[in-house]
Design brief:
- By secondary structure, this protein is mainly alpha-helical.
- The protein has a single domain, classed as Up-down Bundle (Heme Oxygenase, Chain A).
- It is built from 14 helices and two strands, in the order αααααααααααββααα.
- Strands 1-2 form a two-stranded antiparallel sheet.
- The longest helix is centred in the last third of the chain and has 39 residues.
- The protein is globular, with a radius of gyration of 21 Å.
- The structure holds fe (ii) ion (2 copies).
- The site of one fe (ii) ion (FE2) has 6 residues, from helix 10 and helix 13.
Length: 324
């Protein structure tokens, strides 16, 4: 998405994307695609095209060590918000009494299933803390530190990137708002579950692509060669390799990481919602698709802008090396 798009252009594109997604959802359902599955969301939205763009961004970013540091700093800044807000969504659902009820149970107090849904989201929220180990944020910081070492950046040079641009803060605020959900408001919570589903589906895609671009497509050269010589670090009483941050989430051709599991959990929650709410399945699907589209739009905007910012920075860096 271009940074030159005006707010109204952006809104009309989003509305068009959503109405197309609803049409595609109906086609998918007629073809017996299970609602709220990876296939379902992939058929409703242009996920494959987004995936291609993300791979291109990673491929461009890796071309310059300082540019890659900048790109990754922006990316981990964004991800720190998406990770932090998952527990708010879990809490918003758990705080909602008598909103999600099992219709087969006659006693209202016994039928309340908010916590059963919230538990599915809490798995993702708790993984961000990894129990006794290093939180994912700490693992991201280790990888960023390693990238800074690879780019041979001084402390002052690294710190200049902590001044994130206003547009990134705006996008992160949009993430916090869309993700958290409003307790007691079924439409808001279902939209936020769709938002969370997009976050986990794209998390699985993004980390898998990072692993592909760094460790497979550029095997033994550049950052991969540097990573192979980098020792493990002791963090929070455990030993971690810097690339562990990526692999714990997803890998290319390797075992599934936590993002795939988190996505399946939210898919389970959405399928449970369809049984626990009086609205039609069509209405629940529409709310979930709205949330999915909202996250995808913010995430795609983030990548496009970070890519643009990084490329401009790298071009200036080549002309004036003193910039960093
Ligand atoms: Fe994470
Ligand atoms: Fe996750």
């Amino acid at each position: 998405m271009s940074t030159l798009q005006t707010e109204s252009t952006l809104n009309s594109i989003r509305t068009a994307d959503l109405s197309q997604a609803i049409v595609k959802a109906n086609v998918a359902l007629q073809n017996n695609v299970k609602p709220f599955s990876g296939d379902f969301f992939r058929q409703c939205f242009a996920v494959a095209e987004a995936e291609e763009r993300i791979e291109q961004y990673f491929n461009r970013a890796i071309g310059n060590p300082t540019g890659f540091y900048m790109f990754f700093q922006r990316y981990t800044h964004f991800n720190a918000y998406t990770s932090a807000v998952i527990s708010r969504l879990a809490s918003s659902i758990a705080m909602s009494r008598y909103l999600f009820n099992d219709p087969t149970v006659a006693v209202v107090e016994e039928a309340d299933r908010g916590f059963n849904l919230a538990a599915k989201i809490m798995i993702a929220a708790s993984d961000e803390g990894t129990n006794d180990g290093a939180p994912h944020r700490t693992l991201a910081q280790l990888l960023l530190r390693t990238l800074g070492d690879y780019a041979e950046l001084s402390v002052a040079e690294r710190n200049q990137f902590a001044n994130v641009p206003a547009w990134l803060t705006e996008i992160c605020n949009g993430i916090m708002e869309g993700y958290a959900g409003v307790p007691g408001d079924a439409a808001s919570l279902i939209r936020s579950m769709g938002f969370h589903a997009a976050s986990e589906l794209f998390g699985d895609i993004e980390y898998g692509l990072l692993d592909k671009v760094v460790r497979h497509d550029n095997k033994n050269v550049g950052f991969d060669a540097f990573l192979r010589k980098t020792p493990v670090a002791e963090l929070c009483g455990h030993r971690y390799h810097p690339w562990g941050y990526v692999l714990v989430h997803a890998s290319h051709q390797g075992a599934a990481g936590v993002e795939a599991c988190h996505f399946e959990c939210v898919v389970d929650a959405l399928n449970m919602v369809a049984d626990y709410r009086p609205e039609s399945k069509e209405q629940i699907i529409e709310w979930a698709l709205e949330g999915f589209e909202q996250f995808m739009s913010l995430e795609q905007d983030m990548f496009a802008r970070v890519n643009e910012e990084t490329q401009i920075f790298v071009k200036q860096l080549v002309r004036e090396p003193a910039l960093v």
